[in-house]
Write a sequence for this structure.
């Protein structure tokens, strides 16, 4: 347990230190430093891989293994459920907000965009759910490991949110707590897949699918208040994810 606690602390300190430097460079230089965003997104995985080499060289801990295809499908389609249902409810209750302006290219660019999204989220997930979650689970109650993992993940995004890079029309007093709650809830879904499948691939696909579908659905809402209802700060979306978490973990308790 001592090694797990030690590597967890090192991971957090190193990840937030490197991320802090990346944020500082980006905020100081501006869009000219946009390539630094790639380093920022990749730093959790970079730190995790280094710690894996140093402390767990002979152990397979990051989750790069095959799993049942049902978990792959769950990773891809669960975001489609909670985002699709929440946006559907919002559009039905507020039809004027629906624009119908979906940016659909040909099938090949769509596939390439999704594949590129997988590469980007791997930079986060190898660190957050491949390494950190599984280390915390070894010395912490699993429920608390999931909650803390989600909170830390949300906290890592705070500088970008406060700087307005995640601006969606909602004030910080609303944006931060709802975003944090959704991050914890999505982490709970990811954790279910991570522990049940014993693989990181369903988690990576869920994160990529969430980002991809969000980017497709967001332009379909023209209302200035849509950010309060749907998306990463929408309470309808949050309630839908809560329902999925309840269903998944109720099924786990029965099993």
């Amino acid at each position: 347990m001592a090694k797990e606690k030690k590597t967890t602390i090192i991971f957090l300190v190193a990840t937030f230190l490197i991320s802090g430097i990346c944020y500082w460079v980006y905020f100081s230089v501006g869009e000219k430093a946009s390539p630094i965003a790639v380093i920022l997104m990749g730093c959790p995985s970079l730190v995790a891989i280094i710690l894996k080499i140093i402390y767990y060289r002979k152990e397979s801990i990051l989750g790069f293994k095959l799993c049942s295809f049902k978990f792959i499908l769950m990773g891809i389609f669960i975001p489609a459920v909670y985002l699709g249902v929440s946006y559907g409810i919002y559009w039905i209750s507020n039809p004027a907000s629906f624009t119908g302006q979906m940016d659909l290219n040909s099938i090949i660019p769509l596939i390439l965009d999704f594949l590129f999204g997988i590469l980007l989220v791997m930079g986060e997930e190898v660190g957050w759910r491949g390494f950190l979650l599984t280390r915390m689970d070894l010395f912490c109650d699993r429920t608390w490991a999931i909650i803390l993992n989600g909170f830390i993940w949300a906290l890592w995004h705070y500088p970008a949110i406060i700087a307005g890079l995640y601006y969606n029309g909602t004030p910080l007093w609303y944006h931060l707590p709802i975003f944090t709650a959704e991050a914890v809830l999505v982490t709970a879904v990811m954790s279910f897949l991570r522990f049940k499948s014993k693989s990181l691939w369903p988690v990576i696909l869920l994160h990529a699918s969430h980002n991809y579908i969000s980017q497709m659905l967001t332009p379909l809402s023209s209302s200035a208040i849509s950010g309060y209802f749907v998306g990463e700060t929408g309470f309808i979306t949050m309630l839908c994810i809560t329902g999925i978490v309840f269903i998944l973990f109720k099924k786990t308790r029965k099993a």
Observations:
- The chain has one domain: 2-254.
- The radius of gyration is 18 Å.
